[in-house]
Amino acid sequence: MNWLTKVKIFGESIKKVFKKRPTKEDIKNSEWTSCCKGPILKKELEENMWVCNSCNKHHRIGSKERFDIFFGKNAYEILDTPLPTEDPLNWNDTKSYKDRLKEARKKTDQNCGVMIARGNIKGIEIIAGAINFDFIGGSIGAAEGEAIIYGVQKAIDNQSPYVFFPCGGGQRMFESPIALANMTRTTLAINELKKNNLPYIVCFTDPTAGGITASFAMLGDIHFAEPGCMIAFAGKRVIQATVKEELSSDFQTAEFVEKHGFVDKVVHRKDLNDQISLILSILLKKNSEVKSELINETSEIIEPFTKTAS
Ligand SMILES: [Zn+2]
User: Which pLDDT tens digit goes with each residue over 130-186?
Assistant: First the structure.
């Protein structure tokens, strides 16, 4: 008999002990995660807005964590967004779409991948939206499209600016044409916001790609991005295989996209609140609340908008 089956560790055979791998649930419930220097306590990262002090990696965060950082811990109201009919195509592959939705809801404590909140920063009422990447890769289906449009409607009703933090891989294949239709619907909604002369600020977070980049996320008056985040339409390997050229290592990073004009400014997570409220103060002509040195610092960013306005 194999000796491995005989030797016991804590009452279990060596084979059994080594076979045990952490489940997704174990990883989620663990106090630890990993970054450049190996294991790091989640609590330590959380205290630093989920940004690593050593390598400046901006770790992915959920919608609630995003609002906690943007508006202040629990200093906002989450708005109930409409929930359309689920699983309209009755989709099944390795598992059913209904089961995927159930799992995503359990994992994120959200009804859909987009959360809309109302809050106040420096005297400015803001309607904000954020996508949670943990909800089926941040993909957009009918419910997510409805939530984005609901946020636009709220912003118009309140005459408030709309701030959006996108991420995700694009439209959700389990809802195929219905998901694709939401590229057009969200684009039309953003146009309504613009007809009402309300500012629409986008802050890209990691990773934003596909139909999200190709619709509402690229229509901001001002585009911010978190350092190092991926912003793309098609993936790097697909493009490389098409153009048959070696692409630079920073291709599709926020810094690369900024250099090529699709992002106005890459901003550290801790400064986003200040920068966004500053831009909004200027756009809403609340200049008295704005520090002059910050206006100079951001004049390059607002120039395109003021040109359009004049
Ligand atoms: Zn790190």
Answer: 999 999 999 999 999 999 999 999 999 999 999 999 999 999 999 999 999 999 999
Give the domain extent around 81: 61-309
Q: On the CB side of 167, how many CA atoms lie within 13 Å of its CA?
A: 27
Q: What is the total count of domains within the chain?
A: 1
Give me ligand 1 centre to Cα 58, in Å.
Answer: 9
CA of 114 to the centre of ligand 1 (A): 27
Pairwise CA distance, residues 234 & 252, whole Å: 10
- Cβ atoms of 129 and 114 within 8 Å: the answer is yes
One-letter amino acid at 60 equals: R
If DSSP codes are grouped into helix, strand and coil, which group holds residue 206? coil
Cα of 229 to ligand 1 centre, how many Å?
14
* Ion ligand 1: protein residues whose beta carbon lies under 5 Å: 35-36, 52, 54-55, 57
Domain presence at residue 160: yes
pLDDT at 266 over 50: yes
- Does pTM top 0.90 for this prediction? no
